[in-house]
Amino acid sequence: MSKFDDVSQDWPDEPENAELVSLAEELANAAPVLPATALARVGAQMRAEIDGLDRQQRWRRVAFGLSVAAAVVLAVAGFTYFRGGSEFAQPQPRIVRKVEPTTPVAIEDRVAIAVSEGAPAAATEKSLVRLEEYRSLFSD
After folding, report:
1. Which of 43, 82, 118, 137 is deepest in the core (most CB within 10 A)?
2. pLDDT (tens digit per residue) in 30-56
């Protein structure tokens, strides 16, 4: 009998509770006793399941570690690529031109307009924006 068969192992003794004692005896007598070969099969199956779970958890840890390592490598490679090289590379000389100030130049633009002969177009009396109508919008 293994140490897990005794369900009352860590329970306090209650000798005055006869109902509890009789219930425990009934439960112990009602439980069938398994042969040693059946217990060995159950134990082997349990060990196989636990080992399978351990392998799955180990694979998940390895996959997580590899994904973190890949992310770090990509981050370092991207930083190096966009930065333009490592910090140990020799800096390239820059071409600097001296810019001399220039004097401002006046720009004139002439546009030729064809004017028809005859009477000029009549100016309309109507204004483009009706200020009198919308004066309330502009005054305080």
Report:
1. 43
2. 878 888 898 899 889 988 888 888 888
For residue 20, give the nearest of 12, 4, 31, 5 by alpha carbon.
12
Q: Which residues contact 3 (CB under 8 A, 6 or more apart)?
A: 9
Q: Is 0.85 topped by the overall pTM?
A: no
The torsion region of residue 28 among left (phi > 0), alpha (psi -120 to 50) and beta comes to alpha
CA-to-CA dists, residue 103 to 1, 88, 100, 106, angstroms: 108, 44, 10, 10
Find where tokens 């009789």 sit: 22
